[in-house]
Amino acid sequence: MSVRWALTLVLVAGAAEAGSSVDTPGHASTAVRCGEQTLAACTQRRVEALQRLGATLKRAAGQQPAKPPTDPKARGELARYDRWLTLQSERAEKLVAEGRRALGAGKDAPDRQMSFNLQYLQLQSQMQNENHAYTAVSNIMKTKHDTVKNSISNIR
């Protein structure tokens, strides 16, 4: 199954459930919807969500606990988590740039928007999976971890 076809299936699930007709991937530029939204509107909404996510992750990476950990292992985990947050913020910012390019791509916009939306879903999934690795971190990072977890979940 091609990536384009797989993304078409994902994006049109809401339209298919509503009984809307869906064209084949070769004609997807006029029929592809993201739930009740057009592909362009969905792309715009996701670009905005990624902007918020990137800013939240960047802020969280800079947030220091009220009482810094004294245990070297906990300090190391905190530093590792902050590096991960910074990396994820950068990934989100790069994808925002891709989304903006997709929105202004002219006749190639539908294909580029579909590619962006697939990358968006992949990033969301990867971030959720990787963030689970930090679930068992010390209580010092609990607030930061909960903030990040909620932000990742809210990019839908």
3D structure, described in words:
This protein is an all-alpha fold. It has one domain (3-153). It is 71% helix and 3% strand. It has seven helices and two strands. A hairpin with a 2-residue loop joins β1 (33-34) and β2 (37-38). α4 (39-62) runs parallel beside α6 and α5 packs antiparallel against α6 (109-132). Residues 1-29 have low confidence and may be disordered.
Q: How would the blueprint of this fold be written?
A:
Blueprint: H1 3-11, H2 13-17, H3 28-31, E1 33-34, E2 37-38, H4 39-62, H5 72-103, H6 109-132, H7 142-153
Antiparallel strand pairs: 1-2
Helix pairs in contact: 1-6, 4-5, 4-6, 4-7, 5-6, 6-7
Keywords:
156 residues, mainly alpha, 7 helices, 71% helix, 3% strand, disordered N terminus
Mean pLDDT: 77
Q: What is the general shape? A: elongated
> What letter string, H or E per element, gives the SSE order?
HHHEEHHHH
Strand order within the widest sheet?
A: 1-2
Give a quick summary of the entry.
With 156 residues, the chain is mostly helical. The protein has helices at 3-11, 13-17, 28-31, 39-62, 72-103, 109-132, 142-153, and strands at residues 33-34, 37-38.
